[in-house]
Structure formats: structure tokens, C-alpha cells
Amino acid sequence: MDKITKVIVVTPLKLRDGDFGALAKKIGDFLVSKSLVSGKASFVQETDSAILGGFKAKVGSIVLDLSLSGKIEKEIWSK
Amino acid sequence: MEKLGIDPFLLGVQIINFIILFVILKKVLYKPILKAMKSREEKLAGVETAMGELARKQEVFESTKEKVLKAARSDANNIVNAARLEAQKIKNEATEEGNKKARALIAKGQGELDRQAKLVERKVKESSKKLSQEVINHVLARVLDDKTRLKSIALVAKELKS
């Protein structure tokens, strides 16, 4: 039996199911290509307006931060 | 002589008396007096000799005293000079030591100041960055509408694919 990996996707606003499904598929493909997920994955949507734009994907202790607030933070703190 | 009223017998007796008196006086009076005078002269000579000896001894004493005083003054001067040199040396060493400690303290203080300055600078930079981040986030939170946020999600997802 394949192990199901839980992936939490954080977005700045709640997406419609269709949009979230399309986004989850893209994230899933990326995670598989990076060997971060093997087998099946279940996606859970969370909203956090503080991330401003983009999204975050949490897989266990790994956080894929592609949010706008994350980019701003990286930009500011890298200097 | 009789015509002159001089009795030869009496004259002879007088002469004899004179001779006897002379002999007696010489023996009883002159000799002790001369002896006493001689003794006194000898004593005076002894005193003069002693005085001369004392004067010579005093000269020697004065000379020795002067030499001793001179030597003592010289020794004292040498001791004072040596003490001055030693005091100067100690003063120089103490000054050098003090300067060394002062320089070390200044260097330490300077190092501490530099460290504090760097710490403050780092904290100011951190505060500045946090403030910048908060301001940007606050402004963007007010500026971005739902449509733009959705668009940003789509863009990021597209980059993820590529």
C-alpha cells in the first residue's frame, strides 16, 4: 500500500476547488520531480493573507516558500 | 778708722754676721725659692708642652674631622644621587607601566566601543530591515486586490513548472 504524503498549500486567499486542484497538480509534479514526494499525496488548502501573493507548500518539515512576503523577506535580508 | 767712728771689731762682727746671714739665707731662703722657681718653670714648660701637644692634637682632630665630614658629605651626596637616580628609575618604570596599562585600557575600551558600535549597527540594520519588511507588507496588503493575488499564484505556479 502506497504511503500518502500530506502537502499543505498556503495561499493568500481561498481558491476555488478547480483552481486549487490545478495548482495542487503542478505542486505535486514538482515535488515528485525533486523526489520530495513518492507515491500519492493529499493536498490541503490553508489561507494566510500575510503571505500577500504566491503560495507556500509544506511537506513534513520542508517548506517550499514561493510567497510574495517570502520573496520580499529574502530580498531584504540578503542585503 | 777709729777717727771715722768705725770699730774694726764691730765691723768684723758685722761682716761675719753678714756672711752668716748670707749663708743661712742662701741655704734657707734662696735655695728653696730658686728650687720652687725652677720647679715652677719646669711645670710651666710641661704645661706649654702639653698645650702644644693639645694644639697639635686639635689640629689633627680638626683635620681628621674635616676629612671625615668631607667624606661623609661625599657619601651623603653619593647616596642622595643614587637615591635620586633610583627614584627617577622607579618613576620612569611606574610611568611606563601606567602608560602601558592606559594604552591597554584604551585599546580594550576602543575594542569594546567598536564591538558595541558593530552590535548597534547590526541591530539598527536588523530593525531597519524588519521595519522595511513590515512597511512593504503593510502597503502591499492594502494595495493588492484578490485579482492580483490570484495572478501572482498563477505566475509562481508557472515558474514552478518551468
TrEMBL record, chain A:
Top-rank taxon: Bacteria
Principal subcellular localisation of the protein: membrane
Cell compartment(s), UniProt: Membrane
Keywords: ATP synthesis, Hydrogen ion transport, Ion transport, Membrane, Transport
InterPro entries cross-referenced by the UniProt entry: ATPase_OSCP/dsu
One cellular component term from this protein's GO annotations in UniProt: membrane
GO MF annotation: an example: proton-transporting ATP synthase activity, rotational mechanism
Protein name as it appears in the record: Uncharacterized protein
Species, as recorded: Candidatus Woesebacteria bacterium RIFCSPHIGHO2_12_FULL_41_24
Automatic annotation (TrEMBL), chain B:
Pfam families noted in UniProt: ATP-synt_B (PF00430)
Record GO cellular component, one term: proton-transporting ATP synthase complex
Chief site of localization: membrane
A single MF term (Gene Ontology): proton-transporting ATPase activity, rotational mechanism
UniProt key word DNA-binding: no
Location(s) in or outside the cell: Cell membrane; Endomembrane system
Keywords per UniProt: ATP synthesis, Cell membrane, CF(0), Hydrogen ion transport, Ion transport, Membrane, Transmembrane, Transmembrane helix, Transport
Membrane topology: Single-pass membrane protein
Keyword Ribonucleoprotein: no
Complexes and interactors: F-type ATPases have 2 components, F(1) - the catalytic core - and F(0) - the membrane proton channel. F(1) has five subunits: alpha(3), beta(3), gamma(1), delta(1), epsilon(1). F(0) has three main subunits: a(1), b(2) and c(10-14). The alpha and beta chains form an alternating ring which encloses part of the gamma chain. F(1) is attached to F(0) by a central stalk formed by the gamma and epsilon chains, while a peripheral stalk is formed by the delta and b chains.
Stated family: Belongs to the ATPase B chain family.
Function field: Component of the F(0) channel, it forms part of the peripheral stalk, linking F(1) to F(0). F(1)F(0) ATP synthase produces ATP from ADP in the presence of a proton or sodium gradient. F-type ATPases consist of two structural domains, F(1) containing the extramembraneous catalytic core and F(0) containing the membrane proton channel, linked together by a central stalk and a peripheral stalk. During catalysis, ATP synthesis in the catalytic domain of F(1) is coupled via a rotary mechanism of the central stalk subunits to proton translocation.
Protein name: ATP synthase subunit b
Phylogenetic classification of the source organism: Bacteria, Candidatus Woeseibacteriota
